[in-house]
Amino acid sequence: MKRLDKNIVLGTWAWGDNNSYFGNNYDENHFKAIFDEANKQGLNIWDTAYAYGNGASEEILGNLIQDMPREEVIISTKFTPQMEDGTENAVSNMLEGSLKRLKTNYIDYYWIHNDANVEKWTPKVIPLLQSGKIRHIGVSNHTLSEIKRVQEILNEAGLKLDAVQNHYSLLDRTSEQAGILKYCKENQITFFAYMILEQGALSGKYDIEHPFPAGSVRAKSYNSKLPELTELINTLREIGVRHNLSVAQTVMAWAISKNVLPIIGVTRVKHVDDAAQVLTAGKLTNNEIKTLEQVADQANVNTIAGWEQDMRKDN
């Protein structure tokens, strides 16, 4: 199985986008070329969730992976408390649905998608770990104190927390500032960083002259912020030139240089190729990292979404 370190996770949030969140209408055939290119480039870690299109993302991914050896792909999917069925077996029921859609008998990384009720949901993943239906457990959108509590509950059963997945980007470094990255490093917990490109706002594709598609949730979330991001995009471009990287690739390189595992949404073959190229590039220098973070701080743009929290408030 491919190692997680020195890698990039391919995200499928926008696959099966049936609620116009991202403003695309791609069908499964569109994603086959992306999947094939990922295999060609040696990228095989896929992140999805039942919450992404009410299972549509999982179904597309499952159809694509069904003809390849299971050990050659790493699958990450999630239990979302807000979508539970109200039964005693809500976690296992959602997992069974994911297994069916993904056409597999186990999940490599299974996440509690948010911190709705740590005391209730954490114990319910323990039997799933013990059964082998999930190989690693992770938590997403949890504060440091909640992460530590999850760790305590799992430790009591002789298990451990393997991964944390939080929003982490140049515009939202609250997980770092709250000590979560430090805690993960000290406890051999892999930190998966989602939205490092801020859903494209830090990709270099969108600016004042080229806003997000009208009517999409991304447009509502980011178009008003694009003017404040101009200097940061320009700085990313300048640093990227030194490393022969695009704006988006420079963001990926920043994340890798921070020793986190970035998740990159892939809706085009080029996104896969860009990610593969970053893995062969060297890390950014400490001065370049410092410059990017200073410019980002000066932009003072808040991109914490409604379902998320400022992790520093936990301190």
From TrEMBL:
The keyword Oxidoreductase applies. GO terms for molecular function: oxidoreductase activity. SUPFAM superfamilies: NAD(P)-linked oxidoreductase. Keywords: Oxidoreductase. GO terms for cellular component: cytosol. The keyword NADP does not apply. It holds the Pfam family Aldo_ket_red. Residues 7-296 form the NADP-dependent oxidoreductase domain. This is Aldo/keto reductase. It comes from Lactobacillus crispatus.
